[in-house]
Amino acid sequence: MLKKMDYLGKYFLTLLLVISFCSALFAHQHKSSAGEVSVFSGRKEALIKPLLDKFSESSGIKVNLITAKSASLLKRLELEGPNTTADVLITSDVGRLHIGVEKDLFGKIDNNIVSLVPKGYADKDLYWVGLSKRIRSIVYSKEKVDPKELSNIEDLSSPKWKGKICVRSSNNIYNQSLVASYIYLYGEKRALEIVQGLVNNFAKKPSGNDRAQVKSIAKGECTIAIVNHYYYARMLLSKDKDQKEAAEKTDIFFLNQNSQGSHTNISGIGLSKFSKNRDNAQKLISFLLNNDSQLWYAKVNNEYPVMNDIKTTNLLEGWGDIKLDYKSIPYLGRLNAQAVKLMDKVGWR
Amino acid sequence: MHLNRLSLFIIIVFVLPIFALLSSAFFPYGDNLYHIYDTVLYDYFFNSLSLAIGVAFITFLLGGSTAFLTSMYNFPLRRLITVMLILPLAIPPYINAITYSGILENYSAIDIHNLFGSVLMISFVVYPYVYLLARGAFIEQSREIYENSQVLGVTNAKMFFKVSLPLARPAIILGVTLSAMEALADYGTVEFLGVATFTTGIFRTWIGMGDTISAAQMATFFLTIVFIFVLIEQNTRRKIKYAESTKHRRKFNRISVPKHIGFIFLIICLIPLLFGFLIPFFQLLFWAFFKSDVFSKNELWDITFNSLSLATIGSVIIVLISLLFTYSQRLNPTLFLNRMLKVMTMGYAIPGPVIAIAVLVPFSYLDGFLNNISNNYFNFDIGLIFSGTFFVLIFAYCLRFSTISIRSLTDGFGKINYSIDETARLMGISERKILKSLHIPLLGTPLLTSFLIVFVDIMKELPLTSVLRPFNFNTLSVKAFELASDELIIDASGASIMIVFAGIIPIIFIMKNIYGKRNLL
Prior knowledge:
The structure holds two protein chains of two kinds.
Chain A: H1 7-26, E1 36-41, H2 49-59, E2 62-67, H3 70-80, E3 88-91, H4 94-102, E4 106-107, H5 111-114, E5 128-141, H6 153-156, E6 165-166, H7 173-200, H8 210-219, E7 224-228, H9 229-236, H10 241-248, E8 250-253, E9 262-272, H11 278-289, H12 291-301, E10 304-305, H13 314-318, E11 324-325, H14 329-332, H15 336-346
Parallel strand pairs in A: 1-2, 1-3, 6-7, 9-11
Antiparallel strand pairs in A: 3-9, 4-9, 5-7, 5-8, 5-9, 5-10
Chain B: H1 2-22, H2 31-39, H3 41-72, E1 73-74, H4 78-84, H5 93-104, H6 115-140, H7 143-151, H8 156-185, H9 188-192, H10 198-208, H11 212-238, E2 255-256, H12 259-291, H13 299-331, H14 335-344, H15 352-378, H16 390-415, H17 418-426, H18 431-442, H19 444-460, H20 463-468, H21 476-485, H22 489-516
Parallel strand pairs in B: 1-2
């Protein structure tokens, strides 16, 4: 082909080749080697890298990292198949871990590690373990709401809260998981009624993120918001005056304390089925479950550790012992699609 | 013609992932798709259409008016404003929306969390597409037309509507189309502002329902609609013949206007600059310097270097490939290449993560294939050659961003009279030399413009970069978006500001080259 090509064609081809070559030099093609472990992380860099650095320091094992949306990384892991260079996948919700198991992307983690994790927060088939807990909580206006009025999720769908509730869009995975848990707990029909009632009580069209909902309370647009607990905690501890002031006008409430417990999601980790550094990967998993690392989630991101008996921060301890709905956790992933459809039906956009 | 063969080969490789995506239309339609059709499809359709039309209209107003005023009239601060009007391009729409949301949160009277807010947030930072392209067109309109119009007693307003606007139409429409496509492919802004569009719907189906096929089918449906609009636009254009005179380019004398009118012009040009750049920029700067300690970290400089290298290499390759395609099309126009180019220019309307997967599918298959061969015959593991390397990342950029350069170079070539080529060839000058010494200099403006836009777009790009990048390679956009999406806009301000700074450098450099050398600034 090269012989036949005219001068200009060659000129272009050479130019392109030279540039591709330069970019290849600039590239550092990754090959896994013995003293390494490679991480795909759906947890953002700021919320995982410091911990991975500590791991490298203590073990001498180099950690390679890519952070992106869990769903995209899961797809990349699936497509790369047996050739993948990723050893573990960290996600910020249990649903993705479940999809990973369904697509047969994970290998079994050593039972000695998995058995350390309290019941309900690790996969019974050893494919993943939880790392931290994230509670979907209620934040309410101190001025306008008496916490005695709050009890469980069903109550939030009663007409007395009409025009009072703020929550972000249903594209958000934490809302999808929340609804999935109600499908698991109450069955689809009852869950639809509850969520319909909830949607009828929305103060405004869902938008913004969790912090924005708390700010909406401070602005007087609503009196109750559905918020992940660590966002609220970070607002309380924020150096930003506006955020702190907004949060201080409100307080936190954990639903369903007299029934199944508050809805909880977890961030977790799965071991790649085709990991080439299985030992290092398991060392990393153990490390992420040790006391120091577990405490780190609490200190840096105000998440609750999955491991028991870890004294966290004053703020988290101050909220007391919270009853959590851990029984729904294994079902959140498989009910997610149903939850999304349910939210479409009731008009939660 | 062998150049054509090379182009055809390369372009087919590029459009394969798009066809793979489109082939999803032939899969059976699942329950999820019927569910979407029954419940939310109308909303998606209505919102996406309104968003596209709204952004098209506002970018036309902002970009068109400022381009016309800065190229035709003399008014105070005009030179400075001319360069600065491009700067909003350096601010990612998503960051813009979050910044405004932060600024406005204490004023409940102004609510941007709706469709109209999304239109504004996107328009204010993408109107420079229209501005840049329209300005190029206004400047290249020959002076004679205006002089003749004035001799014939045509008023300024009439001249604008009857003469300038129709002549600049192709460029303006290209700019408006690019803006609308960018709005359609946007995920972050509309999700944050609570507007459900086709793009958010595609992700909801893919991630929320775990249904890749239905998501691909939605993307196909959506692209078909976009494609029809693009075809309509190009067909209506074909009826009008443009006879561009390239002979009489003289020094441009701008029309002088009375002081008070000049002042009004200045105000008109300041509006987009103020909302699209000055307000968000200084707010981010304020956050970065006074509320966070991001600049003290060394890491930020490394990341900036990564982003700059990636954007430079990516945009050079994209512009070169576009030049190859458009030049072969000029030397030897074929219907097939033309069609393929049209398919390839759909890339700009495809949401980033969809492109990421569309690109990963064939390349990881190829990786698997190569590894099978090497394992079976040579007992040797070659690992991933494509997936997770810069090759795939830049390939994906080409698919996403070459729209801009292909279309502006096609327009650019269209303005070069064929007689120039013929004369040169009669004189025995080789094709390479014709390209090098005739076409490339004549294509100066579209080449530099596309380089600039692609460069800035790569700097701002997130979804492709984050998932396709190699290990341990961080960029400014990944950094900024991660922090911003975790509701930490103040911590994200440092990286966001660096994106803007890194964008400003080539903008100023290239503006000087486009306009400065020819004394057109």
